[in-house]
Amino acid sequence: MDAQKVDAFIMANGKFFPDYQVAAIRDMLLAADDSKWSMLQVMQFKDPTICLIISLFAGSLGIDRFFIGDTGLGIAKLITCGGFGIWTIVDWFLIMGAARDKNMQKLQMVL
C-alpha cells in the first residue's frame, strides 16, 4: 500500500489500537495489497473512551463487555452483578485495553 494512505489511516485510527502496536500496524499495512484499502476505510472500530464511559455507568450489568464483543464475559458479569462489584471496579482499569486488543484482532483478520 502507499505510504501516504497508511500514514493517513494511522493518524485517523491510531487511538483505537495499543500504542506499542502502531509500528507493527504500519509495517503490516505497507506490506498489504491495495485491494485491502477499501475494506479498511469502512471498518468500524470500538472507541476505548466510549467503552470506559459505558463501564462507569453500566459496568455492573456487563454492557461494556457486550459492547466490545465479549458475550460470554458479559453474561457472566450480568449474572454475578459485576462479580459482586469487584469485577466492575477491575474493568474500569482494563476495559480500554481490552477494546484496543479487540480492534487489533479485527484489523489482523482483515489483513
Automatic annotation (TrEMBL):
InterPro entries on file: TM2 (IPR007829), TM2D1-3-like (IPR050932)
Topology with respect to the bilayer: Multi-pass membrane protein
PANTHER family, sorted: BETA-AMYLOID BINDING PROTEIN-RELATED, TM2 DOMAIN-CONTAINING PROTEIN DDB_G0277895-RELATED
Signal peptide start-end: none
Gene Ontology CC terms: membrane
Regions that span the bilayer: 49-68, 74-99
Organism: Phocaeicola massiliensis B84634 = Timone 84634 = DSM 17679 = JCM 13223
Protein's cellular compartments: Membrane
Transmembrane listed as a keyword: yes
Name listed for the protein in its UniProt record: TM2 domain-containing protein
Keyword set, alphabetical order: Membrane, Transmembrane, Transmembrane helix
Domain (TM2): residue spans on this chain: 45-93
Family annotation (Pfam families): TM2 (PF05154)
Superkingdom of the source species: Bacteria
Keyword Transmembrane helix among UniProt keywords: yes
